[in-house]
Amino acid sequence: xxxxxxxxxxxxxxxxxxxxxxxxxxxxxxxxxxxxxxxxxxxxxxxxxxxxxxxxxxxxxxxxxxxxxxxxxxxxxxxxxxxxxxxxxxxxxxxxxxxxxxxxxxxxxxxxxxxxxxxxxxxxxxxxxxxxxxxxxxxxxxxxxxxxxxxxxxxxxxxxxxxxxxxxxxxxxxxxxxxxxxxxxxxxxxxxxxxxxxxxxxxxxxxxxxxxxxxxxxxxxxxxxxxxxxxxxxxxxxxxxxxxxxxxxxxxxxxxxxxxxxxxxxxxxxxxxxxxxxxxxxxxxxxxxxxxxxxxxxxxxxxxxxxxxxxxxxxxxxxxxxxxxxxxxxxxxxxxxxxxxxxxxxxxxxxxxxxxxxxxxxxxxxxxxxxxxxxxxxxxxxxxxxxxxxxxxxxxxxxxxxxxxxxxxxxxxxxxxxxxxxxxxxxxxxxxxxxxxxxxxxxxxxxxxxxxxxxxxxxxxxxxxxxxxxxxxxxxxxxxxxxxxxxxxxxxxxxxxxxxxxxxxxxxxxxxxxxxxxxxxxxxxxxxxxxxxxxxxxxxxxxxxxxxxxxxxxxxxxxxxxxxxxxxxx
Length: 570
Fold this sequence. Notes:
Layout (H helix, E strand, L loop, with lengths): L4 H16 L10 E5 L3 H14 L3 E3 L3 H6 L10 E6 L8 H7 L4 E7 L2 H10 L6 E5 L4 H13 L2 E5 L5 H9 L5 E5 L4 H7 L5 E3 L4 H15 L4 E5 L3 E2 L1 H4 L5 E3 L7 H10 L3 E5 L4 H11 L2 E5 L1 E5 L7 E5 L3 E2 L7 E9 L4 E8 L5 E11 L2 E7 L4 E3 L4 E7 L1 H4 L9 E10 L7 E8 L1 E3 L7 E9 L4 E8 L5 E11 L2 E6 L5 E3 L4 E2 L2 E3 L4 H6 L2 E9 L7 E12 L4 H25 L1
Parallel strand pairs: 1-2, 1-3, 3-4, 5-6, 5-7, 7-8, 9-11, 9-12, 12-13, 17-25, 26-34
Antiparallel strand pairs: 10-16, 14-15, 17-18, 18-22, 19-20, 19-21, 19-23, 23-24, 26-27, 27-31, 27-32, 28-29, 28-30, 28-33, 33-34
Helix pairs in contact: 2-5, 6-9
């Protein structure tokens, strides 16, 4: 109270100095830079920046890390997101500091899921959440614009970390919860208490259209971004426009139908790889489509001139779908064109083909699939197409016969977003398949969670079989292949191959009758015949009969021993 003005000014000066000496980590970051090889770190860093209204940058490789300081704004403090184990550039905080930047905070990510929950916790005002499985990177891209526009945080969850995610949500206010795409049963069960909205049509394009419509519900749009869902890019993540998935060289039919009725007249294709698709969109919808193939950058973060460089794209995990045609033969014994397809991917492929047949250069027939067929991962599968036109051709044995195969394929029957075009010679064979089979039993063993189908060779010749079943699991119908490679059955033989399927009591109640399909034939690569049969689902407890017998014998021996002792005592 009695201090002089000089003394008061002295204390004020001390306080100002103390405040000025607080470490930079206490300052508020104004831009986010991510240095990580884990796409989930990059995704969460960009999403956090967009929800905070800050610019975001991410490193794609070591050379890119050395260039990035040229394009960052030195007037904005940096939040550096850096992977503990997989950064692209070591000690990047030191690099930025040396270049004159202020790194106000560095977050060391232990893994992508850890970063995802960390930044969710840094946004206490967010009460809307979208949950998806990070095994499907394209799902994260699909929901990103809607998440930004609706101020929702995207959470990664599966059966391994759902307890942690559920615990996080327990400590937050949850206004809206959306489960997007396919997730583990444990995720649905754990989050059911929030009465979530679920978008899962079993197809990435149908799901993508559904989330785009939700975007339209909260914001008018006249422009849309086209991508294939295989990489992160700032425009895709910005939330300014929704993103719509297209194939590299095929536009799915449902996507075309949506665009034609959407009222959207302008689209932007991200990346050079989709230029052919851009032309297809224009041809089929009449939209004005632009291609974003590069970005302009001011020298030194706001310099007087701009450099046009390639887009910063961070790749997402994806399934490489690789399909080819192994052979084509005309079977004079059946009058069919037999085409053998090969799936070299690690997931099942669905394919729909149109095959044009030429004899000595002149087209004589076109055959194909009415519906998409499935080719099991890592296997070959033959299809026989009726072709009476070839039977009418003279001198087939000496003619030059070729087949032009035009096949669209993808990971589901409605996701045929890839194209195969292949021309090959057609051979001449004569073979009549004499095999016959029957499917007699479907048995589910609860203890081992295995479903078995009993198939019997009822004919006089050996054959190969490949059974599959249609089940309703978690309220959703899905086909399950019992075996990957065709199973050999000798004449009169019987086998009960099985596969592991987790079924609850509710699932069992939904599958009292199981539709069974068995593809079969004498030749392993040409299972040209099919058996369809509905069989009752039988349930086994899984108790081993040998164990029961052993226990019974033990009881008898013990009883005999007790009786013998009593007699001795008497």
